[in-house]
Design a protein that fits this description.
2 domains; ARM-type_fold; 18 helices; Ataxin-10/CTR86_families
Amino acid sequence: MDMSADGEENLEKLLQVSKTAEGRSRLATAGTLAVLLRRLSTILPVDLLPVLRILRNLCAGEAANQDAFLHLGGPAVVETVLFSPLANLEARRIGLQLLGNFALAGEVHRAAVWGSFYPARFLELATIREPRVCDPLCMVLDTCCSSEGGRRRFEELCDDERGLPIVVEIIKTACAGGYEEEWLEWLVTKICIEEPYLLLLFQKLASSMYDYGKTEAVLLKLLSKSLSNRPVEISLSNDFALSILKIFRKLPMLGTSPGSPLLFLQGLLQLMCLVILL
């Protein structure tokens, strides 16, 4: 397909072709991704969403496109676009989906995303109180913190000063606007149940004083839902039950604080019951 022709009609044709595995393979051979990535540097507002959608599709399971995106500095290009005046919520949603597809390709791909976005850019995205951005952001974080090399990035995400503020902002978003997909549940399950960071994250939420009591209740509800839905798949860390007990001992302080202590108490009791049953 001729990529020298500009215009909405040509982009629409590329978008349709990019929706199939065969089409993505043909476009990889034609070098379409490189042309589109260069085009992002001088993109017109009307073309931004179509180009991002095509790039997202091209990086969905097609190794040649994923590798081309890596070698051409795709994560850095997308970072620039997502924080430009042209980027609206939909552009950020699609851009994060693109990064998620790309990160699935392998360790060097995940490292490239992490290098471009952690911590400042992830934090900026996490402060957007919109599920359309929060859900794919959680997908990117979860993917980057999985598989080979993921352990180091996971520990960086749980860093008290640089990483956990990102998670705190994501939970605030879930509190304010909800969430639509399971990525957030999986992310907090890793952090709080499978690894020993529940108490630290809880303390960060409490110190933020954002809708005090309700944000903590949202976190506990997320954890309860994960334990209820996937009791066999989840490995409880040795610190998890102890952390719940320590939180329970803080209830007298919560009772004299503004916010939603009743919601928090309900969430905590539900979580305690689930842990006992498991």
